[in-house]
Structure formats: C-alpha cells, structure tokens
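Hi P.,

Sorry for the delay on this. The queue was packed all week, but I finally got your sequence through. Input first:
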Amino acid sequence: MDGARRHAGSRGVSVARTEHIEAPKWNARAPRSRADLFGMRAGPLVALLAGVVLAVTGAAQLYAGLLQARAMNALELIDWDDHPPTASALTPIIDDLGRADDWWPEPVDALTLGELQMRLAVLDGGTPAAASLKRAVLELKQSVSQGPASATAWAWLAYAYLLTGDKSAAVSDALSNSIKLARFEPVLLAMRCEIGLAIYGSLKPDRRAELADQIRLLARRSPRELVRVTKDTGKLAIVIQALLGGDNETLQRFQDAL
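Then the structure:
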C-alpha cells in the first residue's frame, strides 16, 4: 500500500509537471486581442486611404500641368518686341497659371506670374500698375521661397522691389543673391546692371564690386546693350570706372558703341 501511495504520489508529480508544460500551449491558442484585430482590419484601410490620396494628388498634378501647358503655349505665341500683348491678352494666361499654382504649387509658376504681373503693370500704368507690382512682389517672394536657388527669380524680385520705389537693402540683397547663384547668366546681365546702377548710391563696397564685374561681363557680351542700360540710368561715369578695371579692348568696344 505504501508502494501504491508512492506510485500515486509519483503520478501526481508527473501530472503537475505535465500541466505546467502544457499551459503555454493553451495561451498560444487564446483569441487575439482587440488591438491585434484592429491592426488586421486597419492595414487594408490604410492602404485604401493611401491609394485615394495618391489618386487625388495625381489628378491635381495632372490638372495643374494642363493649365500650365495652355498658359505656356499662349506665351510662346506672343511677340514681345514687335507686337507687345494687351492687358486683356495677358489676363487669361495669368488666370491659368494662378489656378495651376493653386492646384500644384511650383516655383516656375510663381516666377512666371511675377514676370507677367510686372509686364502687366507697365501696360496698365497709373494706379493699376501699383496693384500689379504688389502682386508681382508677392509671387516672386513665393518663387524664391519655393526655389531659393533660382538666380532668375532673385533678379526679378530685385527688379520688382526697384519698380515699387523700394531702394532699401532688400533690393541689394536680392540682386546679390542672384549674382552669387549664377555670376554669368547672359539673359540677366542687363537687368542686373540696370538695377545695380539705379541703387548705386546705397551699395556697399562689396556689392559695388559685384556690379562692376557684371558691367564688364555685359560689355564683353553686348556693348550695345550696355550702352542702352547706361543711357537709361544716366550712369556713364560709373560704367566707365567699372570698365577701366577690365581690359582695354572691352572698353574700346563700348566707347565705339556709344
């Protein structure tokens, strides 16, 4: 009987050990928590929402691209030199670019809008010009904010500031930024020289040195264009002084073009 008890006791120990070992298996088969179930359901939902966002984003970009393309095509048909457009011709182009920028903002849209607003200001004259220039400044500030590495945007912003009558450090800073980003940019040389000569009295020595370099570059590329800028600004002495810092051949070509 003692043997039976020992045997029973042995079986009791054996059962206890078996139950202890089997417990984790029972827990492993337990139902998933609510968090787990939510995660299983949220996965497809998140994927669906992401797909919707991508679709909407793609549609917005496509629509903006169509508006931009229509505006750019219209701009290519304009003969700015021989047949400048009227304000009524520029307005729908500005509207298209404005809506394109609303749907999908891009630095090039804001830059083009700023340029067009400045051209519109010249066409308008009077009070409307001030309003157009104000809008131009806003668009160009947005453009340099979106694309701070654009030498063209900084040059146009400096020019917009200048036309509004602002001759503060903002004009000089914008001009300097443009020069530093692209020292030799043929299409910007004349504009930069015109801006710099207009605010020459307020320029610090380092900014005057930057301007003198631009004057010499413009003289080498197009003496006639520099003559035009010189006559428009009435700063012949400053231009000659800048050219004296370069080579004699460039100075002579400029003097021959006068």
